[in-house]
Amino acid sequence: MQSSRGFSLIEIVVSIFIISVLLLLLLAVTRSGVLVRASKGQGVALAIVRNELESLRAGGYAALPGSGTFGNALVDTLPQATTTLMVSDYNAKTKQVTATVIWLDAGATASSTVSLSTLITQTGGLP
Amino acid sequence: MMFLPQRQSAFTLIETVIVIALSASIVVALTFLLYTFNKASSYGKISSQSYASASTLLREIESLALPANAVLETHSFSGTTYTSTATSLVLELPSIDGSGNVITNAHDYVAFYAVGTNAYRLLEKDATSARVAGTVLLSSTLSAFSFAYDDADFVQVRTITVDIQTQAQVKEEVVTNHLSQQIRLRNHQ
Prior knowledge:
The complex is a heterodimer of chains A (127) and B (189). Chain A has 127 residues and is α+β, with helices and mostly antiparallel strands. Chain A has one domain (9-121). Helices cover 40% and strands 24% of the residues of chain A. Chain A contains 1 helix and 3 strands; from the N terminus they run H-E-E-E. Chain A has one helix at residues 9-59; strands at residues 82-91, 94-103, 112-121. In chain A, strands 1-2-3 form a 3-stranded antiparallel sheet, with helices on one face. Chain B has one domain (40-184). A 5-stranded antiparallel sheet of chain B has the order 1-4-5-6-7, with helices on one face. Chain B has a 3-stranded antiparallel sheet with strand order 8-9-10, covered by helices on one side. A two-stranded antiparallel ribbon of chain B has the order 2-3. Chain A binds chain B through residues 22, 25-26, 29-30, 32-33, 35-36, 39-40, 43-44, 47, 50-51, 54-55, 57-58, 72-74, 77, 126-127, and chain B through 29-30, 33, 36-37, 40-41, 43-44, 47-48, 51, 55, 58, 158-159, 177-189. Chain A: It holds the Pfam family N_methyl. Chain A: InterPro entries: N_methyl_site (IPR012902). Chain A: This is Type IV pilus modification protein PilV.
């Protein structure tokens, strides 16, 4: 009897399984790198907006700037980062201040945003 | 009786060459995968540790500077004098009891300073205070650590700007983290 040549079904299935496990492993590794970078970016962005709100609180109601952007030395450490400051009237003696940082991580499809908001009143600010 | 000739079964040269080439490429692919995996995971681990140490240091300074009532130029911590400079900070803060209430006329003293790549916090407490006294290592990957004050006279200082940079080596790459924060003393008189 002539023995049939070629791969059997079971051999093909096993090899496909091994190759796909290796590819999944590689994918998991690259994904974890993206996650680490994203969480680090979030921490830096949070430090930027916290610092901005702290300095605006310290400056007091009278010194509040209008809406626009704000500067910070850490902004350059985030890829393609932009900052936005929104100052709006909350009521006659209170203003709402919102500081936002938007950046785009390398390899990410959508940009990330960190935003903090506070109310600053005409009387009773920081000492 | 007639013998059928026994069929000789063996690999041909071309089969052996193909098998060797395939196994070699699989070994190379696996080594590459293992190397990439190892590098990516250690990079991730060291990078997040370095960031966490910068963050811990900043949060600790913030949690003690916010309730502080003054930046002291110098203070003697059981015999050793610490000075507020561009690289160290000495704070005086009201003592608190177990439920967080301020104890009048009692003060705790705290110093932040760096030795090499290590950042330390030293706390001296009043006998009635609920804070925990002692020296704590907050970061061991420090590369730059600085304080800026809004007034040259420490009695007048109300705002401290803390700047922290940490650095860690991952194989041939260097991971740096930079954090900076302005802190306003809430209990300044």
